[in-house]
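Bumping my old thread because nobody answered last time. Still need a sequence for this structure:
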């Protein structure tokens, strides 16, 4: 009897297509479920028949994926990644806390709840700094704070933007790095591949979604050690661990829960979807 895999999504991207193809090749019967159409009844207990032995959660929406994962785990299903991992990785501040508590090198990070408090943070941190939303991806709403005048203007705009999360000011030092960062794919206890993400000519951000280009990054002992420790710090699973090359070595600044890997797959010799499915097979056997 074929192993059954439920793939939860809210948009079918290249990654979901290759994951489904690879899962079927490895003997899974795949049930692709659009989270936007899920009807969640918390009193319904026997749901394994609808989902199968294991669930791969691939929603772009943090909150949609988080609530779906919470429901499925509450009914005894095994979800990759887990609710704990999804919660931590979906919130940049919680990720920073987990990294710092585990002794992982990470940028200096501050949190404030008002523009005035944020300006006090910047006096201590010094310019330039970076203001980021605590949730979100693809480099959206990330702003460089180069001087007090710029900072005050950006903080005022953020204060006037509706939404409770916009009243949380997550501020990090701007790490002195080359015009690139490092995206690694960590699955379980293995670093599968590492790539450089190069910033486009007219931007300082390296996100592939914004036009950043990828090239292969050599995996050194230092890089592998730090990335694996960072993955364990947030709970492990199928993760994208992002780092920067600082004057004092590699620092981890983000861990992605539903990692996009098309850019890495283009330049890497590793078969990333195959490695993910292999991990799922091993979890089903446990």
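Sorry it took so long. Here it is:
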């Amino acid at each position: 009897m074929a192993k059954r895999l439920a793939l939860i999504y809210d948009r079918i991207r290249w990654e979901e297509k290759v994951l489904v193809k690879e899962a079927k090749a490895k003997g899974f019967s795949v049930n692709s479920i659009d989270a936007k159409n899920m009807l969640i009844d918390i009193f319904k207990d026997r749901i394994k028949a609808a989902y199968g032995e294991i669930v791969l959660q691939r929603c772009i929406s943090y909150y949609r994926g988080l609530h779906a994962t919470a429901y499925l785990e509450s009914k005894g299903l095994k979800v990759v990644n887990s609710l704990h991992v999804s919660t931590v990785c979906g919130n940049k501040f919680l990720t920073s806390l987990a990294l710092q508590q585990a002794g992982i090198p990470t940028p200096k990070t501050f949190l404030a709840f008002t523009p005035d408090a944020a300006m006090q943070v910047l006096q201590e941190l010094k310019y330039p700094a970076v203001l980021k939303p605590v949730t979100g991806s693809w480099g959206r709403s990330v702003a460089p704070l180069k001087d007090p005048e710029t900072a005050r203007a950006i903080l005022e705009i953020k204060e006037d933007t509706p939404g409770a999360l916009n009243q949380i000011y997550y501020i990090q030092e701007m790490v002195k790095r080359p015009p690139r960062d490092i995206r690694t794919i960590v699955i379980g206890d293995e670093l599968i591949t590492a790539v450089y993400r190069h910033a486009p000519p007219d931007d300082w951000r390296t996100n592939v979604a914004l036009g950043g280009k990828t090239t292969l990054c050599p995996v050194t002992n230092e890089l592998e050690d730090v990335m694996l420790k960072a993955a364990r710090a947030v709970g492990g699973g199928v993760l994208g661990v992002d780092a920067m090359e600082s004057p004092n070595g590699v620092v981890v600044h983000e861990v992605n829960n539903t990692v996009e890997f098309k850019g890495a797959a283009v330049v890497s010799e590793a078969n990333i979807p195959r490695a993910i499915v292999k991990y799922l097979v091993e979890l089903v056997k446990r």
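The CA atoms of residues 119 and 148 lie 8 Å apart. Let me know if any region looks off to you.
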